[in-house]
Design a protein that fits this description.
Elements (H helix, E strand, L loop, with lengths): L3 H12 L26 H12 L5 H4 L5 H6 L4 E4 L3 E2 L9 E2 L9 H12 L3 E6 L10 H14 L4 E5 L9 H7 L4 E3 L9 H4 L5 H14 L4 E8 L5 H13 L4 E6 L16 H13 L4 E4 L9 H15 L11
Parallel strand pairs: 1-4, 2-3, 4-5, 5-6, 6-7, 7-8, 8-9
Helix pairs in contact: 5-6, 6-7, 7-9
Length: about 325
C-alpha cells in the first residue's frame, strides 16, 4: 500500500537542503498500525485551496503530519504563522531551518479570514521559532488571536507556541491575549534534549507552562510528548509528574516518526497496548484530558478534545470563577 509518509520522504529531503550535512540514520520499517493513506477527496481539496489562495502555511504540510488527509477532509487545519523557516534545527522536526523572512503584517487578517471561511469552531495556531525577533513573535501571536476573534468571534482558539527563550515579557503578552488553550510541547524527556531539542531548555519550557497557570488560572494548558526516541517508561512518568506540578491540564503522547534519513532515528515503535498503559497512568496522575496513541499529535482532534476538556471542567466546577478564561 502506498502511504503518505512513504511517498513524501524524498520530496521532504529536497525541500530542506540544510539537513544534508547531518549524517544519515537508519529508517526502521513502520508497523501496520502506523500506516496511513495518501490524502484525497473534495473536502481535502477545498481546504488546500483556501490555504494556498491566501498564501498561508500549515504545520500539517511543513511537519509532514500523518493525519493531514483525515484533518483536511474535515476542513481542520493548523495554521503556522511567521513563515515556513525556523531559526532552530531540532533533530526531530521537518520544518526547514535558516534565516527567516520578515513578518507579513497582513498575515493575522488572512488567518482570520481563512478561519471564518472554513467555518471552524476551533482553530489551532502554531509558529516556527523566531529567535531573530526581539519578542520571539509574541506580538504577532497576539495580532493573530485578535484577528480571529474579529472575523470569527464564536471560534475557540488554541495556540501552540515556541518557548520564547530569552525573550522577557513575551509569553505574558500571549497569555494576556486570552487564548482558550495555551499549548507548549515539552516533546521529550530531559536526558534527550541535547540531541533532540538542542536549542531549548527543558525547565524553561516547564516554567512557561507553569507561568500560564499563575497568570491566567482558568486558561487551559496543554503539552505533548513524542515516544520512541530511546526514553524509558520511568522517564516519561517523571515528565508527567513535572507537567502536573506545573498545572498542565491536557497531555498528548504520540509516536515519533522520522521525516528523513537526516533526522533522528526511531529507536522503536511503541505498541498500541503500551500507549494504552501510558494513557491509564496519565489519567491516574490527575490530567483533565489525555490523548495517547501512535498517531496522536498536538492538533489532532483538537476541537473535539477541547469540548471534552471544557465539559470536564464544567462537571467539576459548575459555578464559573470570575477572571481568566472560564468556559
Amino acid at each position: 500500500m502506498v502511504t503518505l509518509l512513504d511517498t513524501r520522504r524524498d520530496a521532504q529531503a529536497l525541500r530542506h537542503p540544510e539537513k544534508r550535512n547531518r549524517p544519515e540514520t537508519p529508517v526502521i520499517r513502520k508497523p501496520d498500525w502506523i500506516r496511513v493513506r495518501a490524502p484525497s477527496g473534495e473536502a481535502y481539496a477545498e481546504t488546500r485551496a483556501i490555504v494556498k489562495d491566501r498564501g498561508l502555511v500549515t504545520v500539517c504540510e511543513e511537519a509532514g503530519c500523518p493525519n493531514i488527509g483525515e484533518c483536511w477532509s474535515k476542513k481542520h487545519a493548523t495554521m503556522m504563522i511567521m513563515g515556513d523557516t525556523c531559526t532552530r534545527a531540532c533533530s526531530f522536526c521537518n520544518v526547514k531551518t535558516g534565516k527567516p523572512d520578515g513578518l507579513d503584517p497582513d498575515e493575522p487578517a488572512k488567518v482570520g479570514e481563512a478561519v471564518a471561511l472554513m467555518g471552524l469552531s476551533h482553530v489551532v495556531i502554531t509558529s516556527v521559532d523566531r529567535d531573530d525577533l526581539d519578542d520571539g513573535g509574541a506580538a504577532h501571536f497576539v495580532a493573530t488571536i485578535q484577528a480571529i476573534r474579529a472575523a470569527a468571534p464564536a471560534t475557540t482558539i488554541e495556540i501552540l507556541t515556541p518557548d520564547f527563550l530569552r525573550k522577557p515579557g513575551a509569553a505574558e503578552q500571549v497569555i494576556d491575549a486570552g487564548p482558550d488553550v495555551f499549548n507548549h510541547n515539552l516533546e521529550t524527556v530531559p536526558r534527550l534534549y541535547l540531541t533532540i531539542r538542542p536549542g531549548a531548555r527543558y525547565y524553561h519550557s516547564l516554567r512557561l507552562l507553569e507561568r500560564v497557570k499563575e497568570r491566567a488560572p482558568h486558561q487551559f494548558t496543554k503539552s505533548g510528548l513524542m515516544v520512541g526516541l530511546g526514553e524509558s517508561k520511568e522517564e516519561v512518568m517523571q515528565v508527567m509528574d513535572d507537567m502536573r506540578s506545573a498545572g498542565v491540564d491536557f497531555l498528548t503522547i504520540g509516536q515519533y516518526l522520522q521525516p528523513t534519513r537526516r533526522h533522528a532515528a526511531v529507536d522503536r515503535f511503541v505498541t498500541p497496548d503500551e500507549f494504552k498503559a501510558l494513557e491509564t497512568i496519565a489519567w491516574s496522575k490527575g490530567f483533565a484530558m489525555v490523548s495517547a496513541s501512535p498517531l496522536t499529535r498536538s492538533s489532532h482532534h483538537a476541537g473535539e478534545d477541547f469540548e471534552r476538556l471544557r465539559a470536564a471542567r464544567a462537571a467539576s466546577s459548575p459555578v464559573a470563577v470570575p477572571g481568566g478564561n472560564a468556559p
